[in-house]
């Protein structure tokens, strides 16, 4: 529910809603997505993408001659480029919340640089993978990687940054553990913890949007527990990484986890989201890809969030709906392009994707 009156909402969200609607016009149509799904090879898929909003991003990574291992980075750049615009067009009072929603994409280059620096590699080793957009663009990453150590590089990234607290937390984790992997994990933990904190404030602005953020936290927690169950870990081993403020409380997650003997048993207990298609695909799959569960969870969240937000006009929900529609478009394209590498049959892929834009 939007708590602003009709006149107040028109003034507050009129400009951003108009810009979002214009951005939505560049989404992939169902017909184009179907053509990509049925394309005979990756080159044919790229030719279809090159005709639309992805042309600029593909050209950054080689155009139609793009190497398959760089396709993800072209798609990520498109995602960062478009969702980054949401911060610019949002009302001043909502910019912090919008930046929080799209922040995990802003921080991708930072984690890429941390990994390279830890291995003693220079900027050139990751230059072709850096998403040249946003606060941490190619120039910022190249300059930061001239620092002598991971510690000083993290400190540089934090200067005058809206993510300063997250990055300082990563620096503290690095100092405590001596592990860059732990520092990178702390970035993710801090991001989702902040997202949980935003839920409370967003309830007073647009309750449906707050509920969607709670579902995003659920996905993060559930994927963490699925991987832990596959690894045979106890709940106590990962309980410190569970983020609160999701729809599914930590106590509920613990009960489900401890009551399941394996991955399938755990997923079967997830009643908040329709996991049956993903669970059936996993049971019938020879390779037992956990990706199937990520697809299932994200599809479930997408369907539920669109049900709540798609008709939210002149509200924060308009902005949030675009972010989720863009993310699921990118996610769907990745599934289609890499389905062979994932070991998915055409039938499994078609059953799991949910793109429904006209």
β-strand number: 0
Main sheet overview:
none
Task: Summarize the helix and strand pattern as letters.
Answer: HHHHHHHHHHHHHHHHHHH
Gap from first CA to last CA: 26 Å
Q: What is the gyration radius calculated from CA atoms?
A: 20 Å
Give the overall shape. Answer: globular
SS class: mainly alpha
Beta-strand content: under 5%
Query: Please, how many helices?
Result: 19
Unreliable segments (pLDDT under 50, ≥5 consecutive)?
none
Mean pLDDT over all positions: 86
Helix content: 55-70%
Q: What do you see in this structure?
A:
The protein contains 19 helices and no strands. The chain has helices at residues 6-24, 30-37, 42-49, 55-60, 71-89, 95-106, 108-118, 138-144, 150-158, 164-177, 180-203, 207-230, 235-238, 250-258, 263-268, 276-284, 291-309, 316-342, 346-352. Helix 5 packs antiparallel against helix 18, helix 7 (108-118) runs antiparallel to helix 11 and helix 17 runs antiparallel to helix 18 (316-342). The chain is globular and about 50 Å long.
Topology overview:
Elements: H1 6-24, H2 30-37, H3 42-49, H4 55-60, H5 71-89, H6 95-106, H7 108-118, H8 138-144, H9 150-158, H10 164-177, H11 180-203, H12 207-230, H13 235-238, H14 250-258, H15 263-268, H16 276-284, H17 291-309, H18 316-342, H19 346-352
Summed up, what is this model?
The chain has 358 residues and is mainly α.
């Amino acid at each position: 529910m939007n708590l602003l009156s009709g006149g107040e909402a028109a003034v507050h969200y009129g400009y951003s809603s108009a810009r979002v609607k214009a951005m939505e016009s560049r989404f992939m149509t169902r017909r184009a997505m179907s053509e990509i799904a049925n394309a005979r090879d990756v080159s044919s898929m790229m030719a279809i993408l090159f005709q639309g909003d992805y042309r600029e991003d593909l050209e950054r990574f080689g155009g139609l001659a793009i190497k398959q291992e760089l396709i993800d980075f072209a798609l990520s750049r498109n995602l960062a480029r478009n969702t980054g615009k949401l911060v610019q067009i949002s009302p001043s009072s909502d910019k912090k919340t919008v930046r929080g929603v799209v922040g995990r994409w802003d921080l991708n280059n930072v984690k890429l640089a941390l990994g390279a620096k830890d291995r003693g590699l220079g900027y050139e080793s990751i230059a072709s993978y850096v998403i040249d957009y946003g606060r941490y663009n190619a120039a910022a990453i190249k300059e930061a990687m001239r620092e002598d150590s991971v510690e000083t590089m993290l400190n540089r990234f934090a200067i005058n940054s809206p993510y300063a607290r997250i990055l300082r937390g990563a620096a503290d984790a690095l100092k405590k553990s001596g592990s860059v992997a732990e520092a990178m994990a702390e970035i993710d933990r801090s991001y989702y913890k902040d997202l949980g904190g935003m839920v409370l404030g967003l309830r007073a602005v647009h309750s449906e949007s707050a509920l969607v953020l709670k579902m995003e936290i659920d996905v993060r927690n559930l994927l963490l527990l699925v991987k832990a169950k596959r690894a045979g870990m106890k709940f106590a081993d990962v309980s410190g990484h569970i983020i609160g403020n999701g729809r599914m409380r930590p106590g509920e997650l613990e009960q489900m986890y401890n009551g399941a003997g394996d991955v399938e048993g755990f997923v079967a207990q997830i009643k908040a989201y329709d996991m049956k298609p993903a669970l059936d695909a996993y049971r019938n799959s020879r390779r037992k890809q956990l990706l199937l569960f990520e697809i299932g969870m994200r599809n479930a969240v997408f369907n539920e969030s669109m049900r709540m937000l798609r008709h939210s006009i002149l509200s924060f929900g308009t902005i949030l709906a675009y972010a989720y529609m863009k993310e699921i478009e990118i996610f769907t394209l990745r599934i289609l392009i890499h389905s062979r590498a994932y070991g998915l049959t055409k039938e499994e892929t078609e059953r799991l994707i949910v793109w429904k834009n006209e």
